[in-house]
Design goal:
Elements: E1 2-7, E2 16-21, E3 24-28, E4 53-55, H1 61-64, H2 67-72, E5 78-82, H3 83-114, H4 125-132, E6 135-138, E7 144-147, E8 150-156, E9 164-172, E10 175-181, E11 204-208, H5 222-236, E12 240-243, H6 249-262, E13 274-277, H7 279-290, H8 292-295, H9 298-305, E14 316-319, H10 322-328, E15 336-339, H11 349-356, E16 363-366, H12 375-380, E17 385-388, E18 391-394, E19 398-401, H13 411-419, E20 427-431, H14 435-449, E21 453-454, E22 461-463, E23 468-471, H15 491-508, H16 514-532
Parallel strand pairs: 3-4, 4-5, 5-6, 10-11, 11-20, 12-15, 12-16, 13-14, 13-15, 16-19, 20-21
Antiparallel strand pairs: 1-2, 1-22, 2-3, 7-8, 8-9, 9-10, 17-18, 22-23
């Protein structure tokens, strides 16, 4: 019984863990890296065709974004996730495919003019739609038997609609081991979704550490802080541009803006308008409405029971088409624009930055974590100019951060979560944090709990029966600038994956009637003869 760490090891994004239980191959998350790549990551140690199950903690792309690539390489197993996560992945994975295909097309137009090689998207819409057919939606707190060797249960993690920690009971021979994968843990007291639930027992715990090195002050009144930013910006005659994740953060911003409106916190600008410019955010908001009972906290439910929509208000406008998006920048009065992506790496937000960064009267307000290396991180760090669509834009707008707002637990909340296990774990593994943060938080967990704690690197393999590290991965840092992970030449890799899938099918065919096997062999040889010519 082995656990191998692949992604988000001494890094924040690209979560992926591989679990080998007898002959069963299982992944927990299959996420895309976002921002700069710090370490060389170990590939999944088996062919995609051999993966039996994938468990998804939540829908964010850094936890789910490579599932279509896994499918394109031959994966045809089952993917288990909560009902809301399944619904959100349905829109987010297709949106990710759309972005990659669009960017590949844009790059290829430039490549053709320059006589350079063309590129292919990492995966396409067909891959995204294909992998979505393998999702199996699950309820919170329901024990689910995947096979005789593996039983799982999803527990609310309070990070995002449908987010979960996952309990895994793994049987190998006479040995049973219980693992808990934290996913991303919420801070609690969120405006819409419930607080994270604690788990009491585990043999091994794999937990995130995004904010494992910091403590937040008592959360401010976000509506008041947001109203202050809006008042100052509107008074100057500018726009408030909010780069926000389409799923989760956009809906929270709507909750605070509704409060500003209904409590008349901006009397001089009472009729101000808010534009959501993200088709994905619009779809995600509809999914929030569908999952009220399962995921919303009590105070949000009370508003709904009174007939109040907690994320809607007068003056809320929706931009779906590209023409509607473009028209926003011709509006002559101050407005609030909420657009994706939240780290400014792709999507319509880049157009709104192009139209507002040079304006000294506008404010760019960040409301979420910015991974180092992303455009959002550069702006928060004080960049004086940026490149957008081949053009240099001078940064004159006010760059602000709504301090304290986050979907991640801080150090205190993370410690409270892991302390709930008492002394039952044999080891805690700390992942999903910046390089130094993983080590700092691992030392703190061991000091505070007395439990053996490690901060593994990509490629580290642990024997769960013996509680020992049996192989160490590379500590090599990436020295070259990382290629854009959304657009890479991938055709030959797909061909190799198809061949490996064919070999897996052949091996599974042993024992079938000789007539069928002979026909299959003839078909393969005929195909090979065609390509040999």
């Amino acid at each position: 019984m082995k656990l191998e760490f692949l992604g988000a090891a001494h890094e924040v994004t690209g979560s992926c863990h591989y679990l080998k239980i007898g002959d069963i191959n299982l992944l927990v998350d299959c996420g895309m890296e976002q921002g700069a790549d710090l370490y060389v990551n170990q590939e999944i140690p088996v062919n995609a065709t051999q993966i039996d199950f994938v468990l998804v903690t939540h829908a964010h792309i850094d936890h789910s974004g490579l599932l279509p690539l896994l499918y394109s390489h031959g994966f045809r197993g089952s993917i288990y996730a909560t009902k809301a996560t399944t619904e959100l992945c349905n829109i987010m994975l297709k949106d990710s495919a759309h972005i990659q295909m669009f960017e590949a097309e844009w790059k290829n137009r430039k490549a053709r003019r320059a006589g350079k090689p063309l590129v292919e998207p990492m995966y396409n819409m067909e891959d995204a739609q294909g992998v979505l057919t393998h999702f199996i939606p699950c309820e919170y707190e329901e024990k689910i038997t995947l096979c005789p060797e593996v039983t799982i249960r999803f527990i609310d993690a309070g990070h995002l609609l449908g987010s979960s920690s996952i309990e895994v009971w793994a049987d190998e021979g006479e040995d049973q081991v219980k693992l808990v994968f934290s996913g991303d843990i919420g801070p609690g007291d969120r405006p819409l979704i419930r607080d994270p639930q604690y788990i009491k027992e585990a043999d091994y715990v794999v937990m995130e550490s995004t904010y494992g090195d910091r403590m937040r002050k008592h959360p401010p009144d976000y509506a008041t802080e947001l109203a202050k930013v809006c008042h100052e910006t509107f008074t100057r005659g500018g726009n408030v541009v909010i780069p926000a994740f389409s799923v989760g953060r956009t809906q929270e911003m709507l909750f605070f803006l509704r409060k500003i409106k209904t409590e008349n916190m901006l009397p001089e600008f009472a009729d101000f308008e808010v534009y959501i410019d993200s088709p994905l955010a619009v779809e995600a908001t509809n999914i929030f409405h569908k999952n009220v009972r399962e995921c919303f906290r009590e105070r949000a439910l009370q508003l709904i029971e009174k007939g109040i929509n907690p994320i809607s208000f007068p003056g809320l406008k929706i931009a779906v088409t590209s023409d509607e998006s473009k028209m926003i920048n011709f509006i002559q009065k101050p407005i609030v624009i909420i657009s994706a992506s939240g780290m400014c790496e792709a999507g319509r937000i880049r157009h709104h930055l192009k139209h507002n960064l040079w304006r000294a009267d506008s404010t760019i307000l960040f409301v979420g974590y910015q991974v180092p290396g992303t455009l959002g991180n550069h702006l928060l760090d004080g960049a004086k100019e940026v490149r957008l669509f081949g053009e240099t834009i001078e940064v004159r707008a006010r760059i602000a951060n709504l301090a304290g707002i986050s979907g991640h637990a801080d150090q205190e909340h993370l410690l409270n979560w892991v302390k709930a296990f008492g002394h039952s774990p044999k080891r805690v593994f700390v992942v999903h944090g910046q390089d130094s943060v993983c080590d700092v938080f691992a030392d703190l967990v061991e000091k505070e709990t007395g439990i053996q704690t490690s901060a593994p690197y990509s490629g580290d393999i642990y024997d769960l029966k013996a509680n020992t590290c049996i192989a160490k991965g590379s500590r090599e840092r990436v020295v070259k600038k990382k290629k854009d992970s959304r657009v890479v030449s991938n055709v030959f890799a797909r061909l190799v994956a198809a061949g490996e899938r064919l070999l897996a099918v052949i091996r599974k065919s042993e024992g079938r009637p000789n007539k069928e096997l002979g026909k299959f062999a003839d078909q393969i040889n005929s195909l090979c003869d065609k390509w040999d010519q």
